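Checked the freezer inventory, then went back to the computational side. Two predictions to log before the end of the day. The first one is the construct we discussed on Monday; recording sequence and tokens without edits.
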Amino acid sequence: MPASLVVVSGTGTGVGKTWVTAQLVRTLKEKGLAAAARKPVQSFDPDEGSTDADLLAAAGGEESRAVCPAHRSYPIPMAPPIAAQVLGMAPFTMADLVGELQLPDTGVALIESVGGPRSPLASDGDTVSLADALDPDLVLLVADPALGAINATMLAAGAFGSRPVVVFLNRFNARQLIHRTNLEWLTHKARLRVITDLQRLAQVVAGLERAAIRAANSA
């Protein structure tokens, strides 16, 4: 099992979840830490070229099938269980997805979901269900910093209940007033832990591994 486990969600689609996950894997590896990404299931537009699993595999120096099982890639841009239904393929459960995960033996494992916390991930669950099944050390919530960020981020973070959540405002630009004010509100009013810098995010995730190693050594 990995030393630490992070579930990566987004406030919705198009917020850059895969890009952030891939860059985080690269940054952790540059720091000399073992890191790998996994995507239990994916759906995609076959005309767009590389899939999320392809991008995550390239970041970790792995093959795509290690990131996402080939039979869990559905070539139609819909929520995966709906895509499977439309394609006439067999339904699958959260237990199926969790049972098929090829987790690394050490380091940090980043498990990327699809869409937002309540986007269907399997016939019987979503990303919140995935977090319940995996009991990760951290939920990383990727959000857009622009107009609508406060509502989307607070709703998404709240879906995970008492689990530790770190928000990453992707594409944050300190010169944009709306970005700055959203950051301030989410940090001071909503009292969420919000990060805007990828290097800082990598430090936080790396700290999870170090803490896990220390705990294991002292046990």
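The second is the one RB wanted added to the comparison set:
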Amino acid sequence: MLSDEQVEEIHRGTLQVLWTTGVYIEHERALKLFEQNGCRVDHEAMRVRIPPALVEECLRKAPSSFPAPARDPGKTLMIGGNVLCLAVAPGHKTVDSTTWEPREATRKENYDAVRILDALPTVHFFSPYTPYFGFQGVPSCMAMPESLAARIRCSSKFQCVGFSNDSEMFAIEMAKAVGIEILGTCAWAPPLALYRDAVESTFRTVEAGFCLRVVTGQVMGGTAPASIAGAIVTNNAEVIAGLVLAQLIRPGTRVLVKDFTAPMNMSSGAPAFGGIEIAIHNAASNQLFQKYGVPLDNTTAYPNSKVPDYQSATEKAFRIMTAGISGGNTLLFHGSVHGELTHHPIQAILDDDMAGMVGRYMEGVTVSTESLALDLIEQVGPVPGHFMSAAHTRKWWKMEQFVPKTADRLTYPEWQSSGKRTCLDYARQRMDEIMASHKPMPLTPSQEDAVERVLEEARTHYHKKGLITDDEMRVYRDSMKSPNYPYE
């Protein structure tokens, strides 16, 4: 996407912004830490200017790849290098799978959705707030702790957590109690601002010894320049400043930075999540961070479409294919129906097939004596020879072909006689099959007790702070009568 000179020009621009413009850091402890390490700090304005030499030093200290241990060791990831790992793309609400109208999810629907995502082979880890931003009866301050509890209970895959109202404290405690690692979050407020809660999350995550994801969330033309090159510079400056902070707290901290950028729809002011410009921005950013040797999380694959249709498929396909062929390391992909607003397991099942196709593309072509099949070609010869009965065919078609589970590959007469089913029909069928058969790796009784203990600590904490009223607590506790494990 970029020439070597363009890479260097953007890098120099990033260093200039960090040293000349600087960043806003709303946290006195962080300001002192930056100052102790040679940065120019204006404590009154909370402005930090980071010298190029410190930036280069911290980029070298950050690992180029790192393990992300899952509760099931067989699902542990290696983030970085020449590997693309896929995660769940959350939505605020679920949708009716017939009308596609949004509504709040129930506790059971949330837990069921996690089970389905746990069963999908191309879902490698879970992002924060997944699959939904809470569910019925849960106060907003408890959405993240309840979400993590559901994911730990119903999935043995690696988990990423967010922060809100100090929720990361309970996430860290829950992870330690269950004996797992998590990926914490440091989220910027573009342009170039890091508020207190994000810095606290950074300190707590890094000091706990966990890996950190540094996220921005800029909109080109709004909170970032409208030009792709300018938006790359501001995104770089933000995530690299977060990386520097993590390395100053604890050198060698495992950091995953995120290029979370979308153009603004200039007719409405909303993010144009399906824009091809995102794929261009990601491809260029992947090139830069390969130079830095730091893993990069690409912009979440949210479509603008409101239903699983042709538009949704094209918007998602460009994003995952670009991430795969340009060297992205992670991508939040599965399940998003529209923006960050809706998610549904049926969409995640469709996305599983798309991810499988891209994975097959990334595997490339095997060239060997056996795959060239020269002896077989000689044996079969021209027409009327054929390869259908060959042992080579029986072996290699299974190795070479990716067979989707929700695509219609019938002939037209077969399709007509078998009910004219679409990909949505096949996805619904697969969802039912997963619900009937998939049993996630359970927690031990002591681990389950630990999860519930931490949740109760969080409920008490927020109730005392006034973030949960007495009436909300009564509704909340009534909602908890729905079983956590609806499959038992």
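For RB: The mean pLDDT is 96. Residues 65 and 80 are 4 Å apart (CA to CA). Let me know if you want it refolded.
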